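Colleagues,

For the teaching module next term, I've prepared a clean inverse folding example: a structure given as tokens, and then the sequence designed for it. I'd like students to try predicting residues themselves before seeing the answer, so please don't circulate the second half yet.
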């Protein structure tokens, strides 16, 4: 990595403002986070003792879905937005186990993710990976970015990965419009992999209590219902078993299933294909 780029990027990182990617990193057992991030994560654990296990269950869902896309659906191109810090197996690692030539463009708006991504996201030489710093709220900039255009061929099917990121887009920021722009940019046969935080299993908590830990972070959290999450897939055909709680999406008998103290991972996940 260019040290000049790393130094310039580091200057834009504010350790005092929690960021979802770093909070997630801490909950997954990573080390690329600050005290502000850890404080939010610990508050989440206080609210729900099963938060850490739920986050790991969510990550396992994403891994299973990416594995399905590469090994069974024949997808060789991935646009992963809201990538997060590569604490666990990132998308290209999973995909390239089945399809060495898989090509992945990663997008995140946290400078620290960009630094780590550029340093660590190397994969099979038969494939290709690229990391860009951009914001999901501006899909047109993502889609027109030269690095993204250089990695992905939008005339062929692409898997758009929106794992654990849409709940950081508020209603005022037009989340469904953002999703539709991304869906419109890819051809028939493309897939949408999406997961979303929900309060459906946390009736004992108010909306304010549920999302309060993120109030001072770089992005507030907006949990959505099953019906509201299902709307992101509108016009596309859901892959069996549809939009379900992440732990019940094609569970792998060979995969260790942690018991979640709260009983729920508090997240829906699904996969759909463009007709």
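(Answer key — instructors only)
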């Amino acid at each position: 990595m260019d040290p000049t780029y790393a130094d310039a990027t580091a200057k834009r990182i504010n350790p005092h403002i929690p960021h979802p990617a770093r909070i997630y990193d801490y909950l997954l057992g990573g080390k690329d986070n600050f005290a502000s991030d850890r404080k939010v994560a610990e508050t989440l654990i206080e609210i729900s003792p099963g938060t850490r296990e739920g986050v790991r269950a969510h990550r396992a869902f994403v891994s299973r879905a990416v594995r399905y896309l590469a090994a069974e659906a024949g997808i060789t191109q991935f646009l992963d937005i809201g990538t997060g810090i590569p604490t666990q197996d990132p998308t290209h690692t999973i995909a390239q186990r089945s399809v060495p030539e898989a090509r992945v463009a990663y997008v995140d708006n946290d400078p620290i993710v960009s630094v780590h991504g550029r340093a660590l996201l190397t994969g099979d030489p038969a494939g290709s990976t690229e990391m860009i710093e951009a914001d999901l709220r501006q899909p047109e900039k993502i889609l027109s970015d030269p690095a993204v255009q250089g990695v992905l061929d939008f005339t062929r099917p692409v898997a758009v990965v929106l794992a654990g990121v849409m709940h950081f887009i508020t209603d005022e920021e037009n989340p469904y419009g953002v999703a539709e722009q991304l869906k419109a940019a890819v051809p028939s046969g493309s897939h949408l992999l999406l997961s979303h935080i929900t309060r459906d299993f946390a009736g004992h908590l108010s909306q304010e209590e549920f999302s309060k830990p993120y109030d001072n972070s770089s992005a507030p959290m907006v949990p959505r219902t099953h019906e509201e999450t299902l709307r992101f897939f509108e016009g596309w055909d859901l892959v069996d078993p549809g939009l379900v709680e992440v732990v019940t999406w094609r569970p792998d008998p060979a995969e260790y299933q942690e018991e979640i103290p709260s009983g729920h991972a508090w997240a829906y996940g699904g996969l759909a294909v463009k007709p």
